[in-house]
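User: Please predict the structure of the protein below. I'd like the answer in structure-token form so I can feed it into my own downstream comparison script.

Assistant: Understood. Taking the following sequence of 501 residues as input:
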Amino acid sequence: MSAISNITSALSSLRCHLYRFVCTAAVVLTALLTCGCEKNDAQVPTYVVAMEATFPPYEFYRGNEIVGIDVDILNEIGRRKGVKFKLEDMAFDSIITAVQTGKVDLVVSGLTVTEDRKRMVDFTRPYSGARQVIIVPKGAPEYKPEDLRKIRVGVQHGSSGDAYVTENICEPERFTNGALAVSAMNAGKLDAVVLDNAPAENHVAGSPNLTILPNALAEEEYAMALRKGNTQLLNMLNAALMELEADGTLKAIIDRHMRDNKPEETAVADSMMGRLVDDFKTDFIKNNRWKYLIDGFIVTIEIAAAAAIMGIALGFLIAVVRSTADLTGRLRVLDWFCRLYLTVVRGTPIVVQLLIIYFVIFGAFDISKVLVAIVAFGLNSAAYVAEIIRSGIMSVDRGQMEAGRSLGLSYGCTMRSVILPQAFKNVLPALGNEFIVLLKETSICGYIALQDLTKGGDIIRSQTYDAFLPLFAVALIYLSLVMLLSHLLKKLELRLKKNER
């Protein structure tokens, strides 16, 4: 009984701290929700713009700021028309969905006008031309379109290049952005990459071992996309683009970026260690690119910690409901809803749940994306935590419950004072493992325009065209976090074992 009383005392103290923490977190989340739901009270209209900022020279990161042709065009339109544009960096294959569901007002991301896209969104007048070109390693054959059927071809997922290659040539290998496809070709994983000509020229300038074949696959046009029926914004943008084109501003912006935003070609060191040092300086030191990892690390910790608290609180309640139904036959209706919840959450991928919560459930609300991620990961984690805790409760010998009841304790008091402390000790390793899984699952936050740790590595890769060091750094940070969590869990387990003596 001494061990049980010690564990009960520790659990009681833990409940007090957890209660305070949950109350504080509730206040913070309420503040985030309130701030996120506030409309812009300023008189200057503000439009949210989605773009995938790994597409130089149209949109890319310089430090922590998104710059490029599209950004300069938006800034000039804002100056002339008295409006503001708020930029959101998100995965390219999500931007059309974002404007359709009203999460953003506009898509400006080197977006090609196609018939399929015209059925989903309205386009402004074109503001730039483009061509689909083929990037290959230097010394490769001069492939014709029909030759691409026999080799490994990479594309950016959801792009017009993806659609053209799929419909006319072969089934390509799809990557989240063009920079990642180019990195794969540099690593020998692809034989060719089909990409828009402007970013292709930037990628080739940053990768001296690559070249662009002379014959283009297709001629295209870029335009801005917005939700169907938004004629006021459409007319304003068309009028502004006509003005920029008439006075030569549009051409001047494009020409300046095409001329000035070429990656610098650097000398290649002779030794492997020299190349590694040069790559390290380019990937992390130059332009303070290490800050992308630090900023992403903070976002990852915020989401994982808050989602873990939510998952434990909700999972604990579900586990109690299900265990009570199993042990006493009560709460059958609640048990049915809990079973349905567990089936749906555990039967669908977390990335699908995240997108549904962001685009559908919270589609009509302008709330913090961090809060959306916390809710999504918290709900997902709760399903697994519930079954972990329930298994711990059911693993405690039923004689413990009978002994408590025979001493005059109520069912709830017996559960709190006798069953749960033993169950907690039994499931602690599994709970720790669930938090580790949750921490790594946050790497998909880039789908809703959150710059987490993984997204920070993606941004570095898009600027340096080096896959090894950025990916290694991201993996090392995750590994360090997991090792730290494992160490803390081990210490907690040892402390609980001492109470058994």
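That's the full token string. The CA atoms of residues 147 and 443 lie 37 Å apart.
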